Amino acid sequence: MDMRMTVPFVEALQDIFKQMAMIEAQTDGEPFTDNEEVHSYGVSSIITFAGKIKGRFLIDLDTQVALQAAKNITGSSYDSPKEQMVLAVVSEMNNIISGNAITKLNNEYGLSLRLAPPIVFAGTDVIISIPKVASASVTCTTAYGKLKASVAISKA
Amino acid sequence: MEDKYISPFLEALKNVIGQFGVTDIHFGKPERKETMHVDTDITAVLGLVGNVRGNVAYSMSSETAKKTVSAMMYGMPVEEIDSIARSAIGEMANMITGNAISSSLSLLLSGEKITFDITPPSIIFGKDIYFIISSIETVSVPVDTSIGRIEVNIGLEM
């Protein structure tokens, strides 16, 4: 997969986390090819898209990062990532991040991509797998824990 | 979301798994919810974009998943959910959703040309998972079959 595809997503992720949630996310390094199976850190959100190519964008947050983001955005504290408001915050953040990134990709490469609504989930020992599609991931460090951005593209 | 948009998915499920030789397919009562709680092991979820937009998720136990994959491969025994089995489950989700949209749902929306794309399926494993697949509402229908229960969750925005 072309590692350049990760750039707009990671930039949008850093922007939105800073602007909306007041969380600075520092990338740990270059994008790397991830396994077919991704072990969730705690709370994950997937947005899939289709157009001239198809793919999915995943953000994966340590539980503490998700709880802190929800707290900073809504002003209330939450105990569990399974609370609806925490899931809704992560889902909406991913929606905005992916919207920004997709717009850039469409403008730059004319891919005519459209987004499906976000999916968000939290559970115990969660593994996410997207069959037959390679993904490129970037891990980031924040003051509250780790987060991961992962992009997988398949030909339409 | 109106009830009439749900039955195409159920009929498609019946068609597709019926072709694999699964019998005794009974639909349970649809339930509407904001958050979906899954206590089975495996969920295959895929998205729709176009003038039908949303997500559809199919949840089942790993036992049911193994039996489904085995049925898809003409009875070949399936010991574990490996990458081939995952791919098969994703493919089943693709077939059901594609079937639902192209056959029945397009009739319901007659007069309007349906243009849509199905996005790649993601397979999610784990226990005790809370999902939100639609910001509006999710309709969940349990389907009992000869190989166990498959839960169909539909979140469409239209």
Q: What attributes does this structure have?
A:
heterodimer; A: 156 residues; alpha+beta; Chemotaxis protein chec; nine-stranded antiparallel beta sheet; 3 helices; 9 strands; 35% helix; globular; B: 158 residues; 36% strand; CheC-like_sf (chain B)
Describe this structure in words.
The complex is a heterodimer of chains A (156) and B (158). Chain A has 156 residues and is α+β, with helices and mostly antiparallel strands. Chain A has 3 helices and 9 strands, in the order αβββββααββββ. In chain A, strand 8 (135-142) and strand 9 form a beta hairpin. The longest helix of chain A is centred in the middle third of the chain and has 26 residues, at 84-109. The radius of gyration of chain A is 14 Å and the shape is globular. The mean pLDDT of chain A is 92. Chain B is α+β, with helices and mostly antiparallel strands. Chain B has a single domain (3-157), classed as Chemotaxis protein chec (3-Layer(aba) Sandwich), CATH 3.40.1550. Chain B has helices at 7-19, 62-72, 83-108; strands spanning 26-27, 31-33, 36-38, 42-50, 53-60, 116-118, 122-132, 138-145, 148-157. The radius of gyration of chain B is 15 Å and the shape is globular. In chain B, 46% of the residues are buried. The A-B interface holds A 36, 40, 46-51, 54-56, 82, 84, 87-88, 91-92, 114-133, 152, 154, 156 and B 34-35, 38, 45-50, 53-55, 57, 83, 86-87, 90, 117-135, 155, 157.
